[in-house]
Design a protein that fits this description.
Oligomer: single chain
Number of strands: 6
Shape: globular
Strand order of the largest sheet: 2-1-6
CATH architecture of the largest domain: Roll
CATH class of the largest domain: Mainly Beta
CATH topology of the largest domain: SH3 type barrels
Number of helices: 3
Order of helices and strands: HEEEEEEHH
């Protein structure tokens, strides 16, 4: 149902003449108000198997549509603890080996830091090897 609503929203924006060229950012917002914000510069989206693959600003991210409440175009850069790139566990603005190390330490019980949900890369409630694999793929541009 959410996928249908999302697709209808995209169609509506297209019909109404809305263009990503007039906005600086696209926000993907989950039901618990976590925001994944991407630049609209070079924005490309494809949909497959219940996921949106978003390429923008030289980075590719995969968004699980089942977890998304809505998406919106905006000119305002998000700030605060709810804005992050999928896979950027520590919230430093980049997806790198540090994020992988954090996930491994969480799995080993050596890290109990509150990462505001960013550690659940695949949207679950536990951290496992699939989260690590997703971050590796995001780092390699295969997300």
């Amino acid at each position: 149902m959410k996928k249908l609503i999302l697709l209808l929203s995209v169609a509506f924006l297209t019909i109404m003449g809305a263009s990503a060229d007039t906005y600086n950012y696209l926000n993907f917002v989950t039901a618990n108000n976590q925001i994944t914000q991407v630049s609209t510069t070079g924005l490309k989206m494809t949909f497959n198997a219940g996921k949106a693959t978003v390429t923008a600003g030289g980075q590719t991210q995969t968004i699980n549509l089942a977890q998304m409440a809505y998406m919106e175009f905006t000119n305002t850069q998000s700030s605060g603890g709810t804005t992050y790139l999928t896979g950027d566990v520590n919230g430093d603005g980049s997806i790198d080996v540090v994020d992988i190390n954090i996930l491994i330490n969480i799995m080993l019980g050596k890290d109990t830091t509150d990462y505001e949900g960013r550690q659940y890369v695949n949207g679950g409630t536990t951290v496992d090897v699939s989260d690590v694999n997703t971050v590796i793929n995001l780092m390699l541009g295969k997300g």
